[in-house]
Amino acid sequence: MRTPDFSRLEALVGSVVSVSEMPGGASTRRYFRVVLPGRTMVAMFVPEGGKPEEIAKETARQRWPFLEVRDLLHASGVDVPALYAEDQDNGWLLLEDLGDATLANYLAKNEDARERLYRRAVTDLARAQQQLETLPNDSIVATRAFDADLLRWEIDHFREWGLEARGHHLSAEDRRTFDEVAGRLANRIASWPRGFVHRDYQSRNLMVRPAAESLCWIDFQDALLGPRVYDLVALLNDSYQTFDRAFVEGRLNEYAAAMRIENRGEIVEQFDYVTVQRKLKDAGRFVFIERTKGNDSFLRFVTPTIRKVSEALGRLSSRDTDMKALKILLNRTLPQEFG
Q1: CA 225, chain centre distance (Å)
Q2: Distance CA 209, CA 128 (A)
């Protein structure tokens, strides 16, 4: 894996006053704040060219997924960071400096803005999905999707890392139950109509422009086709935030209204099913990041994330025997976290 060549960065921007590394997330991408005479930029360094760690079925492309998706979103009226320069051969992009006001950071100091900004996030998402209902045939987003294989991979990621890596080994009978339920859940979600999915549309990947309290999207390079509620789950069952059910359903109602969806009950039910799938993956991912990358900052979110699964299963289990079986299995396996 290549390391950053700062001489190449200087060749892109000219005179540099200073370069300082910014706090990173869970990926291998690194970010640097570049101070130039009279302005700042953010340099993104991508060691491996931006390929995801999950099942990858797309062929090699000339432009990085980040750049392709950014152009697609920009053309559709979505607020994304300005692009100043690119040097893919050496792993560099130069982007607009949006400051440090992620939605999560902004709300920590402006709690009264929570409902306003989440309404904005929901309506922005609905508008983007409508604008991107038809994608160019050569769009990278159109070439990859939440098919049953990828959905199942994410659920198995939880079994591998959220259970087994932490010493919670399933009995042969429980393993059969888990595998059967995981397969049917993946197939159920994969069967729903697909649309544009950001894939990680949550409070750390939305930047607030304070002057207008508008939202700028980041970290969208893994965008693909999937169920329309997937990004709603990432947003409203965000592992880094806590909402009561009334707040969540209020935003789901606003989304349904913006999308002109009459059957709002279907949106709520699909939201709960995807919550089970997505949040299981997230809980496993947090452990994976700690075990394989030495970053333990996400471990404190494992239990709150599993609790979100528990709440969704509580609503679904009264009418779905698979969800009831999964609830019983997880409650027995993880009684302290799941209860």
Answers
A1: 13
A2: 18
C-alpha to C-alpha distance for 330 and 339, rounded to whole angstroms: 9
> What ranges do the domains of the chain cover?
6-96, 103-338
Region label for 132, one of left (φ > 0), alpha (ψ between -120 and 50) or beta (otherwise): alpha
Residues belonging to the chain: 339
Residue 24 has pLDDT above 80, yes or no: no
Listed in sequence order, the DSSP H helices in 54-109 are 65-75, 103-109
**Angle, vertex CA 95, rays to CA 92 and CA 96, nearest 5:** 165
DSSP per-residue string spanning 246-297 = HHHHHHHHHHHHHTT-S-HHHHHHHHHHHHHHHHHHHHHHHHHHHHHH---T
CATH architecture of 103-338: Alpha-Beta Complex (3.90)
Does domain 6-96 correspond to CATH entry 1.20.1270?
A: no
Pairing state of beta strands 224-227 and 30-36? unpaired
Q: What tokens were used for 166?
A: 């932490």
Give CA–CA dist 309/273, Å, rounded. Answer: 9
Q: In this predicted model, which residue has the larger pLDDT, 22 or 165?
A: 165
C-alpha to C-alpha distance for 122 and 136, rounded to whole angstroms: 24
Task: Express each pLDDT in 135-186 by its tens digit.
Answer: 998 899 999 999 999 999 999 999 999 999 999 999 999 999 999 999 999 9
- pLDDT tens digits for range 6-18: 778 878 887 787 8
Q: Look at the pTM and tell me if it is higher than 0.85.
A: yes
Q: Given a cut of 70, is residue 50 above it in pLDDT?
A: no
Q: Is the per-residue pLDDT at 302 higher than 60?
A: yes
